[in-house]
Design goal:
Structural class: alpha/beta
Largest sheet: 3 strands, parallel
Distance between the termini: 19 Å
Strand order of the largest sheet: 2-1-3
Shape: globular
Radius of gyration: 14 Å
Number of domains: 1
Length: 106
């Protein structure tokens, strides 16, 4: 089985442990047990400087840098994306429209 890494992005206001609260039912642990390489963006806690961040910076700087890192590390053109929360799913939809090479093959 070919291993295509997955990048998980949690909502800006949630903490990454929200889907891993119950032992034995961890999303990340289950993905790892399936043999997937899992990457996670943790936005941390915002400070005063965060008020100047735009959606453009989140998509075209932060997410794009993470995707490029994973693609380079695994020598792949495409990776899997998983947005936790409606906002992050929307951000990934915007991202994939800006970078169409990432879209799933038909």
């Amino acid at each position: 089985m070919f291993n295509i890494p997955i990048l998980i992005v949690y909502a800006l206001v949630n903490r990454p442990h929200i889907v891993d609260l119950q032992e034995g039912r961890s999303l990340v642990a289950n993905l790892l047990n399936l043999g997937l390489d899992v990457y996670l963006i943790d936005w941390g806690y915002p400070n005063q400087d965060a008020r100047w961040l735009t959606i453009d910076k989140y998509i075209n700087r932060y997410i794009n840098n993470c995707v490029d890192f994973i693609r380079d590390r695994h020598k792949l053109m495409q990776i899997n994306l998983l947005g936790i929360c409606q906002g992050e799913a929307s951000i990934f939809l915007c991202y994939s429209s800006f970078y169409p090479w990432l879209k799933a093959r038909e």
